[in-house]
Each structure stands twice: as structure tokens, then as C-alpha cells.
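pipeline stage [seq->struct] | target=Response regulator | organism=Alteriqipengyuania halimionae | residues=439
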Amino acid sequence: MTLLSDIPVILVEDDHTLAEATMQALEIDGAEVGHFDRADNALDAIDRNFGGVVISDIRLPGIDGIAFFERLRAIDETIPVILVSGHGDVDMAVAAMRNGAFDFLTKPFSSERLAASIAQAAANRALVLENRRLRDRLDRSRAIPGDSAASERLRTLVSALAATDVDVAIAGARGTGKTHTASLLHDLGPRRSRPLVTIDAGTALHPDAELLLFGRDPGAGLSHTGLIERARGGTLVLDKIEGVEGALRARLDTLVENRTILPLGAERPRKLDVRILAVLPEGMVSDSRTLLHRSGPIEIALPSLAERREDIAEFFSRFVARHEREFGITCEAIGADVLNHIHAHEWSGNLRELDAFAKKLVIGSGASDGSAGGERPARGLRDQVAEFEKAVIENALREAKGSVPLVEKALSLPTKTLYDKLSRYGLKAKDFRQGGKAS
């Protein structure tokens, strides 16, 4: 194994002679190098999950290296950036390092010095991403909340499919959590330590989509690793790109059916070990326009919020708690009118609409009292939601005169879930039967 084996490197350098020499040295050491002569083009290839190292000259056409570095920090301030330039740019580079740049190399520099810096930066980045993944996995220990039958079925299906390597089509109405489910299938599965790469319609319909997706072979000039190949060993998510046509569609069909890609300028296709997940609009899994249609994927049909209304309180509690952490605001006491609203509203936008409502509520709470912290009210949101839920179950028991089957039907709750809640709230069905003390 070489020093830089399989480390993704983005090189931004407008001097093509220097770029070729640098790429050759790094590729000999095992790095996977993508070259860009402009920083604005490189930004399209980097997201928060980028697992490699960025090397950028300071003096570039368009966006210069310092501005590029600031843009990268906005994406993820832990992405390691190595800045390169001449002696005249030392002051700027020192300032950038104070702001979080990983290293600064003055031209000319040795390939050994650069490789050593990349290796250290990549090790740091791998540790950051692994810690982030561990935190995410802890957060996802109950990643599909809810006690409804629909949530139970979804939890069971996602758990089973995450452990496999099969292609999956995830379909649902807007706001039901399709991209979140795709992330879960990756993060809870055996490929979780490898890349998760998403290709959306914006990328697939870009004028240079073939270059962005499939890359360029080193033998055809300046090489470029495409987005698809960056998913090697991991998971590739195709997010609503069923409208792609022509030569690009043919290339994608070949990828799905044969797991091979042909970069621009390459003479022979390359095998690619990758799992493919497709995110689709509701009802499109069997549509012939979808890329996975011919491979017969397993389908996950995500339920709407209307199909899991008894889970609304838990989702709402989670969304409020997340936005409290995000904005540093402790939400004021939630009134009965809000709790009534979240249960009565139709939520045609599903989880996304409920999340937006929770966010607006938290921000409005912070604006109304001017606080950005402080102690949580004595009756926190979870207590209030639990009190409301208990009242709903009590009312259902009262209307059903203590008949558990009728309550199950009225609230769409599985038997075990209902009995768990009865035990949690100290309720007994017999107390609501005719002649009982709570009748």
C-alpha cells in the first residue's frame, strides 16, 4: 500500500504544467486526483461528506484561493485545505492558516513534502468523519420514530434492507423523508465507512454532466475523477433524475445493469463496486423511465404523515428539540392551541411541513422573549405532548366504553403499542367500561 492509497485529492491549479507534474507524483503515491483550473468549478465536486484533501493555488482566475478557502469553510470548516503559492503571498497564507487552513507550501516544493502534508490532513479528516458518523449513528438509534403500525413496518424494512447490498427504490410523496431514508440505508449498513454520493437532477442536467459524473481518463489530457467513481465501495443515490435522456441516459443504464463506467477518453470500461439507491416520486417505481426499472429493485414506499398521525407528537418534539439546539433557543411553553393544531392539521407537506412549523415556532419563541438560553420551563415540551397524548387516549377509551379493539381502530395503534401507552400513563381499560369509575 502506498502513502496516499485511495485518498481523494482535489487540485485547483491554473498552471497546467505544474498541475500535470503534481498529479503524476500524487497518483504514483496512490491518490485519486481530480484537477480543476478554476475554483468555482471545483466547488461543484465538494460537499460536507468529502473525505479527502483540497490543494489550491492562491492566485487563480475568477475566485482566488483565499476566497475559495472561505467558500469551503462555509460548506464544512473541517475540510482540510493546503494552500500553495509564491513568496509574495505568505502573509495571506498565514492569515488563512490562522482561520483554519491545514498547511501552506511555498513554490517550489518537493513532492515528498506535499505527500506528507496530504497524508496527515487525510488522517485528520478521516477521524473527523468517523466521529461524525458515530454521532449520527447514536442520533439514529431510533432514526425512524413513532409507534404507529406504518412506522413499525418502515423500521423493520429499513433495518432488514440496510444489512443487504441490494438496489432499493425509495418512493413517496414530497416531504416524507426519501433522502433521509437513503442516508439511513447507507449509514446503518456494511458500506457506512465508504462514500455516500448523491446525484440530483441539477447535476444530471448540467451542460458538462458527462464529465462531472463519469470523469475524464488520464490518457485524454487532464484527468478528472467523476462523481460516480467517487462512490466506489460505497453507495450512489440517484435523486429524481428519471428525466435524463440521450447518451447520458445510455451511460447510466450501463452503470445500473453492468456496474461499469466509461470515463471520457477511456478505451475500456471500468468495473465499479457500488450500491445504488433511487429516490423517486410517489408511484414511479414501476415506471419505465426510472433507471432501476429493468433491474427490479426492492421498493420502500414511505407513508404519509396522514398514515401515521399518532406519531405526529413525537416527530414534533424531535423537530423542536433539534431547532432549539440549532439556534441556541429554549422554546417557551407550548400552548394547548399549538398541540391541538399539530394533531388537527392535514400536513399535506408531510414531515417537511411539520419540521418547518416547528422551526418557525422555535425562532418565534426566541424572538418573543429575547433569550438564547436559560433554563427549560418546568413543564417541557415532551411533558406537554405526553399529557396531550394521555388525554387523547383517555377520550378514545371513554368513547369506546373501554373497548381496546375499538380504541386500536380509532387511533390506528398496534395492540402492543396501545398497551405500552396504557401502562405508561397508568390507564386501565376496565375503568372506562360502563359502570367503571371513569365512565
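stage status: PASS
auto-comment: Residues 306-432 form one domain. Confidence is low (pLDDT under 50) at residues 368-379.
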